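hey so i finally got around to running the thing on that chain from the lab meeting. sorry it took forever, my laptop kept dying and i had to restart like 3 times. anyway pasting the input first so we r on the same page abt which one it is
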Amino acid sequence: MAGELLLNIALLLMGAKVFGYAFTKLGLSTLLGEIFAGILFGAFLGLVPANNGILAEVAGIGALFLLFLIGLSTKFEEFKDNLYASTVIALAGAMLSLVAGFFVGLTIFGDPQTALFVAVTLMATSTAISLRTVADSGKLQTSGGRMLVSVAIADDVIALLALSMLGTYVSVGQVDIWKAVSLFFGILGFFFILLTAGSKAVGHVLHVSQRVKDEQILVSVAVAVVFVIAFISERIGIAGVTAAFLVGMAMNRSPLVEKYVFPKAKVIGYGFFIPLFMAYSAVAFDIGSFFSSIWLIVLLGIVAALAKVIGCGVMSGFARLSRGEAKLIGVSMVPRGEYTIIIANILHVAGLITAHAYTIVLGVVIFTILIMPLISRLLSLGANSDMRPVRNFHYKGWGIRSALGR
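ok and heres what got predicted. didnt touch it at all, straight out
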């Protein structure tokens, strides 16, 4: 059993890294390469089983590392100047995606619960892919790029709230209106505690740990804190990945993080756990369902893309952004990625969506990543010149520091 587990990990890990690198050379996202590795060794070759409980638990740590790293590099100062506008824009895109995804999902699956779950997976944008694409185009240092960073961070927070609500549903089996309202405020309270008192406590723990003559102890303590808080959060009905994100945000205020914790946690995460998680998430991919539902995937993918373009783009206009800035934000919010996969994986493992629905969601992730450049060309995004350069704006968050360094 142990030997088989090691072989499965080796296949997925090497496949994820090799194909991830190959896909970047083709100008595509690393995430697509990792998904391809899972499909190849799982659904296509059958070398890695989809129902391996131990492997699922090990791979699941990758989701914690991913959200922890996002939290470490998500600084409130990066978007506080655009807090109101960015939140409204992100919320418009998320809610339109939810509503449109639900009605299209209802048509596809014929089941309101499955349609709702699939719609929830489509609410969040892939921050890494969107910011990396904009950075490569040279527009991140413009007024539109700066607003995009704020919108992407707000979108992350909305995704976490949705993920927490979903995690509680998985834990208790149902969430009525009163429980939903209570949960919402409970989650906000959890956010507040971790980002205030928790930030001071974690900073103190790191400061004390620095006194030990061991250069690795800071990252060890940081990861241990993530695991403990994630355990506690799951005990009270909040998704562990949400806690990992919040611990990262609470921890990033410490001056020790950027030099000692983030680089080493990033090596552990992107060197092992995160690519393993992404590849394993695609092992359950059903090739038969994919080809039999290809037009449904395209339909749902187009609706998901348009929901972000219209929701975020139009609301950007109401926020008094220029036409070019509105286009940039709307198009950049199209690709789905890490959050969609994490949420879909939770639902699939809990038995709340079928392998068929899970495959369609993964298909939509692939479709929205591939369609983003096409939408950019159709809207002539590269021809816009009404975005002002922003001096002294150097975003060091998740999208650039993490995605470019994979």
